[in-house]
Amino acid sequence: MLEAVVFYILAAALLGFGLLVITRTNPIASALSMVGAFGALAALYALLQATLIAIIQILVYAGGIMVLVIFVIMLLNLHEEDLKPMKARAGTVLLSLLAVFGLVLGPVFLAVFPKGNWKWAALTNDFGSIFTVGEKVFSDYLFPFEMLSLLLLAAIVGALVLSKRKL
Amino acid sequence: MLSGENIVKSVSDLLHQLYAMVGLSAFKGVLDPIVAAHVMFGFISVFVMFLVWMERKVSAHMQSRIGPNRVGIFGLLQTVADAIKLTIKEDIKPVHRDKIPYYIAPIIAFVATFAGMVVIPFDKGMVVQDLNIGLLYIIAITSFTVIAILSAGWSSNNKFALLGGFRSAAQIVSYEVPLVLSLVPVIMMTGTLRLGGIVEYQSQNHWFVLYQFIAFFIFITSATAEANRAPFDIPEAESELIGGFHTEYSGVKFAMFFLGEYIAVIVSSAVAVTVFLGGWLPPFAFLAFVPGFIWFMIKLLLVIYLVMAFRWTFPRLRVDQLMDFGWKVLIPVAILNILVTGFCVLFFGKGV
After folding, report:
1. By the CB < 8 Å criterion, does A35 face chain B?
2. What is the rounded average pLDDT of the residues B183-209?
3. What CATH code would you report for A1-79?
4. Domain residue limits, chain A
5. Cα distance from B320 to chain A (closest Cα, Å)?
6. Nearest residue on chain A to B104, judged by CA atoms?
7. Mean pLDDT, chain B, as a whole number?
8. Are B166 and A62 inside 8 Å of each other by CB?
9. Which pTM was predicted?
10. What phi and psi values does residue B95 have, to the nearest 5 degrees?
11. What's the confidence (pLDDT) of residue A8?
């Protein structure tokens, strides 16, 4: 009962912040709402007992990436006239809603709903704990994990090369 | 025996009897955290008032002055008077402010650091919630302060505030890296992120400050930088930036930033005490009759005194020196420390 109340509050907050992200003309306001959305999402994860994912969500997205995003927006030096509100046409809104539901949410619903009788496995004591996640990452998923770190390394080197070309 | 665990138990028994009397026993799960938050807030506000007084006394002592001595015994009520003054002050707002971020920033600055108190174990069992990823939680939740500082600097529509906000964000983001890296060797040795577990490990071995002195040094340095305190206080360097990101804040909103800054000092010092100085453990076994939370508070005050002594003895760093020190000294040393600790754990097994 209580969990449901908390869930709906968090879900409403998440959707509200999400709407604010795309409707604000001021990019700073959008970025701050995005931080709020990430916070709500992290709280939802925590509600599902996935505390590690929740913390990582805050640490990486709200704490790290969004700070960089806000930093970049502030350095862009935008002027009043760059920030005129866009006219929303009914057709565009309808089409994009259709596209979202048809291409993204629709297939998900189709994939999820036909399988009627769900069997809920009881959570084990160490579900989502740092031990289990670490064990999986360094055994079953070692190769993708290493590939990911290689990808990130390549991105860092690429960024350095692009920005320090005259060095 | 007087111990944190017994106090918590008797207080919560009393509370549950109280709930039963008013007929709210069903909402125990909701009411308990609310009560805990209020207790923590009361403790923190009084402690911060004491710390402000202590800071002024320490600085006075270092500069051969007397410090506050008019209001109350030893001037102890000076901060109370100041707090009352702050709350009844006129709230001056810049006309061209960015309204929502301007109002939200002080709230985030306070809440983000205050939330860190949740996992601090004052004594065995005397903790609001001993999360099993407590250390990571503190690091994550306190990183929200950057957003508060950035939006405060931006929304004030003032060039000094904006510059201060930028400097502060750059500084916090850079010093977050050595801060986290300095904690990694400890986690490698204990194999747990639960703060209570780290203290229990130290009760069987020595305190971590003996094994990991370099990590302790890196942690204290970067925690001072994270809290924007001198000698790393360039975000609010008053000689160049007036007041930095909170230039345009007055009254209660300024008080929130101020409170947040002191809570950040308390939280990072408490983490230093828990992780490196044995938390609630007595320094010698024969002193075990003194309750654990008293040991914790003694150590906490000592570490905070150390941080305050930094502020009044070192001159302020320049921006480039600050960045150089963070990226070229602290981070490589922290990584080397991890490497050496890794070899030690590998060859000598857990516990060195």
Report:
1. yes
2. 85
3. 1.20.120.1200
4. 1-79, 122-167
5. 18
6. A32
7. 84
8. no
9. 0.85
10. -65, -40
11. 92
